[in-house]
Amino acid sequence: MDIQLKRGLLDICVLAAIKNEDSYGYKIIKDVSPYIQLSESTLYTILKRLESMGMLTVRSAEHDGRLRKYYHITDLGVKRIEDFREDWKEIMTVYSFVTKEEQND
Amino acid sequence: MDIQLKRGLLDICVLAAIKNEDSYGYKIIKDVSPYIQLSESTLYTILKRLESMGMLTVRSAEHDGRLRKYYHITDLGVKRIEDFREDWKEIMTVYSFVTKEEQND
DNA sequence: AAACTATACCTCGTGACATGATGTATTGCG
DNA sequence: CGCAATACATCATGTCACGAGGTATAGTTT
């Protein structure tokens, strides 16, 4: 997928991945990858950003001797997803504009 | 609209605006603005980029004593729009992922 | 004539962001 | 013991949108 198109979707995908159940970095990548490819460096950058924005909270936990940092979505994070659904309506009108008269050519 | 979401759409909108008829900067802004807001500085940056990518060609013309630069889409530009339509399928699966189980919360 | 608005172009600095490269450390398997 | 998988993190780089600012002409208002 075009890299610029991904930019607006990545944050939302990460939030969606922790929306129903707290999750951690490695798992988020596995869950999201089928839909949109993202590397570790990208994910951890995003997680830091979303945390600083107050869209998620972090809790460290040990699992089988390995550190895991579980991410939990906040009300603000949930609202971010809802706002995306509003943005989607605008995106659809843009899509219509781009593809209209396509069949006439 | 979220600025990151716009990034992947702006190029496409500009190409769509000149797809059926050659157009010029000032007119492109007026045509595209109802669907997605973009400033002059943004547009001219995009036009330069699309030209260097070979997605459009430029032709200068005088109109009522004022300079106008008409932009014409190339085959590559048309292909770019078609590729977007392919990307759109992926975007739809992302959208499904983000909004699924929305009603269960 | 002066002031202002619309038309029409352009550049530059800034800040945001995705990503590859790179690094650290542990567990489990062959 | 070596290697893959798990799990975290940082940094440098390149791309890009956009506000601020600039130039110039035509038409309209004061």
Question: Could you please describe the fold and organization of this structure?
Answer:
Two copies of one chain form a homodimer. Chain A has 105 residues and is α+β, with helices and mostly antiparallel strands. The first copy, chain A, has one domain: Winged helix-like DNA-binding domain superfamily/Winged helix DNA-binding domain (Arc Repressor Mutant, subunit A). Chain A contains four helices and three strands; from the N terminus they run αβααββα. The first copy, chain A, has a three-stranded antiparallel beta sheet. Chain A starts with a helix and ends in a 6-residue tail after the last helix. The model of chain A has no long low-confidence stretch (mean pLDDT 93). The structure holds a DNA duplex (30 and 30 nucleotides).
CATH T-level fold name of chain A: Arc Repressor Mutant, subunit A
Strand order of the largest sheet of chain A: 1-3-2
- Give the SSE string of chain A: HEHHEEH
Query: Span between N and C termini of chain A?
Result: 25 Å
Q: How many strand elements of chain A?
A: 3
This entry's quaternary arrangement is: homodimer
Q: Structural class of the helices, strands and pairings of chain A?
A: alpha+beta
Features:
homodimer, 105 residues, Arc Repressor Mutant, subunit A, three-stranded antiparallel beta sheet, 4 helices, 17% strand, DNA-binding
What is the gist of this entry?
The structure is a homodimer of 105-residue chains. Chain A is built from four helices and three strands; from the N terminus they run αβααββα. Chain A has 105 residues and is of the alpha+beta class.
